[in-house]
Amino acid sequence: MFGWGLNIVGFESAKIPWRSALGLRSIDGQSADVFSGAGILSTLLFVNYIFYRICHRAGIPAGESISQVIHLGSTVCILLFSSRTIFKESRVFLYNRVNTFITVGEVKFIDVLFADALTSISKVLADSQIIMCSISFVFFGEYFYHACSNSLVGPILASIPYAIRAFQCWLTYSNKNDQMQLLNLGKYMSSFPVIWISALKKDINPSEGFGMDKHEEYLQALWMYTVVINTVYSWLWDIYMDWGLGRPRFGGKPQWPFLRSTLLYQYPFIYYAIVPLDLALRATWSLKLSAQLLAHGSGPAFVFVFEILEVFRRWGWIYFRVEWECINKGHLTQGDSKTEFSIHEAAKKHLTQGGSKTEFSINEAAS
């Protein structure tokens, strides 16, 4: 949530009409409300974490499980019943997204952006298996805890965001006959082998890299192939399709090589920086989804770092994805203050240079 609040600040600083692109009202998504909600949830998380650490140090496993249950329950209660603006807006937002999915309605850009954000927390969803197992321990005892821990709940939860996004691609293709959506569908389908081969590797040999026989070595190689394919596939799609970079024929000749003719952010170097950074951070995706990583002593620490890096990558990705949506779908001409300013400046600059030239300059600025 803090990242989304910073996204809003960045959009408004660059005069990007992001609410128009997402189909929101001008009063929706105020950054102050987002930061307020993020602060409340962060405080709740911190308090429950302190309770968890106290129980852990005291050697009270039941207390550790209870702290997780309390945190989950209190978070759900806040999201469902809080009267704060951000949480009321979140309830409406989630209802609309679920309703669109259930009724198989038109897939809008806001649905795409939300589903893409869910893919970035697929590991978090998989790790929620731990919370489910803790709940089973509190209410049903140790036997159910071990049964839950050894189940396929984790990889199933990790697969859900990609399944939703793949369904959206197929729905868009079916409704609009957009052939590119089939390629986009293939990108999300390439995520499933990474998740499920990793889960199979863990089931065969929980300690990755130790005592592998020939069959496990083949499985490891297959997993690496799927990782490389998915990472490169997703990275290229980010650049060319989600950000509109590397397409010199679109919208005229760009001033900067490889970039677009229209750039809404002031400094071109950030576009050059985000391309290799996106690849490097996408490469960590394969590591954070490894089901065997937790088997190592420092595995949980690595997973936490990788999840933070993925949130950072998605935060940066949203800036350029929303920017390209505004440019590609014409939202810049729909009451954007930056466009209006450009028209005003063009008129002022060319006012003394002849009526026809002034009219041409204004029309050119507006387009």
Describe the protein.
- It is a single chain.
- The protein is 75% helix and 0% strand.
- The protein is mainly alpha-helical and 367 residues long.
- The chain has a domain of 84 residues.
- Helix 3 packs antiparallel against helix 4, helix 9 packs antiparallel against helix 11 and helix 15 packs antiparallel against helix 16.
- The longest helix is centred in the last third of the chain and has 30 residues.
State the share of residues found in helices, binned by percent.
Answer: over 70%
**Beta fraction:** under 5%
Low-confidence stretches: 335-367
SSE run: HHHHHHHHHHHHHHHH
Distance between the termini: 35 Å
The number of E-state strands comes to 0
Sheet bearing the most strands, described? none
The structure class reads mainly alpha
| Average pLDDT taken over every residue | 81
What is the tally of helical segments?
A: 16
- Shape, per Cα inertia axes: globular
